[in-house]
Amino acid sequence: MQFALVDAAQRTGSDSGVVALFSVAKTMALSDGYFVAIPAVAVSVLALRSRSLPAPICWLGLLVGGYHFVEIPIQLALTGTATGVTGPIGVVIGLLWLLFVGVTLVIKPVWGPQLPSVAARAAA
User: Fold this and answer.
1) Long-range interactions of 33-38: CB distance < 8 A, separation 24+
2) Gap between the Cα atoms of 75 and 101, Å rounded
3) Cβ distance 104 to 61 under 8 Å?
4) Residue 116 phi, psi (nearest 5)
5) CA nearest 48: which of 34, 37, 60?
6) 3-state secondary structure the chain
7) Is the pLDDT of residue 52 over 90?
């Protein structure tokens, strides 16, 4: 989106086209929380069901996703505008969750179904 804005400004496009692009960019900026919320909730639910990540990290992902779903209504209720403190808070908690998931997967990677251990096979 930002590339389109710069490209339109460099080409000295028509004023209405540039205004339209800036309007779309503003709308996209207000909806970007959903692009974090949907994957965070989906990954957290799937990881919780498959036990591929520790449960606290999955629950944190659900909280992060839930917060991103409601951050714009919270900001509108607090200040009456769509911009404010909830945006940076959402970015920070989203990046923290991504960092926790990444570090967990580096420490203990998940490579698919695990074979039963030797002790479990001997007991069977």
Assistant:
1) 33/68, 33/69, 33/71, 33/72, 33/87, 33/90, 34/68, 34/69, 36/64, 36/65, 36/68, 36/90, 36/94, 37/64, 37/65, 37/66, 37/67, 37/68, 37/69, 38/65
2) 27
3) no
4) -60, 150
5) 60
6) CHHHHHHHHHCCCCHHHHHHHHHHHHHHHHHCCHHHHHHHHHHHHHHHHHCCCCHHHHHHHHHHHHHHHHHHHHHHHHHCCCCCCHHHHHHHHHHHHHHHHHHHHHHCCCCCCCCCCHHHHHHC
7) no
Reading the block at residue 39, the tokens are: 């994957």
In contact, 120 and 63? CB cutoff 8 Å: no
Residue 102 corresponds to which tokens in the numbers above?
A: 């990444």
Q: What would the pLDDT profile of 8-51 be if each residue is shown by its tens digit?
A: 566 565 666 666 666 666 666 566 677 888 999 999 999 999 88
Neighbours of 55 (CB within 10 A): 11
- Write out the two tokens for 88: 């940076």
Asked if residue 4 lies in contact with residue 22, where contact means CB atoms within 8 angstroms, the answer is no
